[in-house]
Structure formats: C-alpha cells, structure tokens
Amino acid sequence: MPTAARPLLAVLVAATALAGCSGSEESSSPDFQGEQKLVANVVEDLQDAGREQDADQVCQLLSEQLITTIRATAGGKATCAEAIDDAIQDADSFDLSVKSVTVTGTTAKAVVESEDRDKNVRDTIQFVKDGQRWKISALAG
User: Fold this and answer.
1) pTM of structure
2) Distance CA 7, CA 10 (A)
3) Residues 6+ away with beta carbon under 8 Å from 100
C-alpha cells in the first residue's frame, strides 16, 4: 500500500474494500442542528480518534456490520482495532469537513470533504442509528 498522504477516510475506504496533508481543524458540527448535528459529531469523533491514533475509539464509531466487513478484508486481523490500527498508521491527514447531512429515519448520509495530495475530495459516509447513537455503516467515494 503506498504511503502517500491520505486522509483517514480514504484509508478506511481501502480497509473495507469499498472502493493532502493538512486541512482545517475547525469544527463543522455547529453548522447543523438536531440529528444532523449528532451525525456531524460522529465525523468529528472519527477525526479526533484518528489524530490520537486510537483504533479502539474508531471501532466504537462503526456499526457491527462494518466491523465484520473490515475484519473479513483485513488479512486475518483478529479484531477491528488491529485492522484499523494499521490504517491509522498509514494515514497522514485526519481532517474532514462535513458539507451536508441528510437524515432519513434511522439512517443518515454525510458528505465530507478532505484533502488528498493537495486536492479536495468529497466522500459520503453512511450512518445507522444504534440505540441513541449514530454509527458509521459504510464509506463510499
């Protein structure tokens, strides 16, 4: 896997087989309210966990289905944290800016922007409501 600068989101996309160096650390969740804000907060939590290189925290943000997919495609890693830890080590940037959030019942989508090799890249993160918490259920370009 090349070690070029990649945001955490791109690394997680590769880790799940679903498909820049520095950006703003400014929070984008104040731009949203209600459930949309809760979804945007999960993106910020993902950013923070990546910066802190906390694979366990990243895994807590993921749905069970996504964890199963990650483990199945991670070359025999026993736990989600082991698989994600490798991805975190390869990432050079963890900055994501939430551009929009759409909530439909117990599912949601967030369009996020990151920087990859000096280009702005937009990706969609899908979420599922798990009890009172939103969890990342899929990542797509």
Assistant:
1) 0.80
2) 5
3) 110, 111
pLDDT, residue 94, reads 63
DSSP string, 83-120: HHHHHHHH-SB---EEEEEEEETTEEEEEEEEEETTEE
CA distances (Å), origin 53, targets 26, 44, 92, 94: 19, 14, 11, 10
Please choose, from the candidates 127, 3, 7, 19, the residue with its C-alpha nearest in 3D space to the C-alpha of residue 73: 19
Instruction: Evaluate whether 115 touches 134 at the Cβ level (below 8 Å).
Output: no
Helix (H) or strand (E) holding 25: none
What's the length of the chain?
141
In this structure, what is the dihedral angle of CA atoms 14, 19, 25, 31, given to the nearest 10 degrees?
Answer: -150
Residue owning tokens 């909530």? 103
Q: Dmax over Cα atoms in the chain, in whole Å? A: 40
Q: What is the DSSP letter of 78?
A: S
- For strands 97-104 and 119-130, give the pairing: unpaired
Q: Is 129 helix (H, G, I), strand (E, B) or coil?
A: strand
Pull the structure tokens for residue 86.
């490798």
State the average pLDDT over residues 74-89.
79
